[in-house]
């Protein structure tokens, strides 16, 4: 019972974090296309910064609950280590997005909108890998 509640909230906070991971690069695309409109740029940068902070909190809780599933409820296997490796890649993507947001907020240059659109697709592939590992537990 406690295991299922822990898992339910783990998935809930994972959803909230992944929503951030999927949406934050959209701010970068908009920032890269904003041109000479400082007021719009500042507003997008502020919204991005707040969403980035929110994402950190959601990740922190999802992570803590994931650790509880692992160490308290003893759900573990090679699939979990593989999953955590992919989670690290998602986290790296998230942090790179945050750095680019800060750079854009300071008026720095961003990669092209096309590059950013491709960058935006990476977490989708990583999320499929994570879900495959969790549900198929292939090893
Ligand atoms: C941050 C560190 C994380 C740890 C330590 C962790 C660990 C775990 C563990 C031990 C389970 C239990 C699996 C089971 O009962 O079969 C689980 C479930 C799950 N995890 Fe994570 N997880 C983490 C992050 C994530 C992330 C980032 C995602 C998705 C992007 C994710 C998606 C899921 C899903 C969907 C389930 C539920 C599987 C089911 O319905 O049975 N987890 N996690």
TrEMBL record:
Q: Topology versus the membrane, per the UniProt entry?
A: Multi-pass membrane protein
The pathway it acts in is:
Porphyrin-containing compound metabolism; protoporphyrin-IX biosynthesis; protoporphyrin-IX from protoporphyrinogen-IX: step 1/1
User: Which reaction equations make up its catalytic activity?
Assistant: protoporphyrinogen IX + 3 A = protoporphyrin IX + 3 AH2
Principal localization reads membrane
* Cofactor(s) the protein needs: heme b
- Enzyme Commission designation: 1.3.99.-
Which InterPro entries did the record assign? HemJ-like
Where does it reside? Cell membrane
Residues bound to heme are 10, 83
Q: What UniProt keywords are attached to this protein's entry? A: Cell membrane, Heme, Iron, Membrane, Metal-binding, Oxidoreductase, Transmembrane, Transmembrane helix
Q: What class of enzyme is it?
A: oxidoreductase
Give the transmembrane region(s): 6-24, 51-73, 79-97, 118-136
* Co-factor remark: Binds 1 heme b (iron(II)-protoporphyrin IX) group per subunit.
Subunit (UniProt): Homodimer.
**Function of the protein:** Catalyzes the oxidation of protoporphyrinogen IX to protoporphyrin IX.
Write out the similarity annotation: Belongs to the HemJ family.
Q: What is this protein called?
A: Protoporphyrinogen IX oxidase
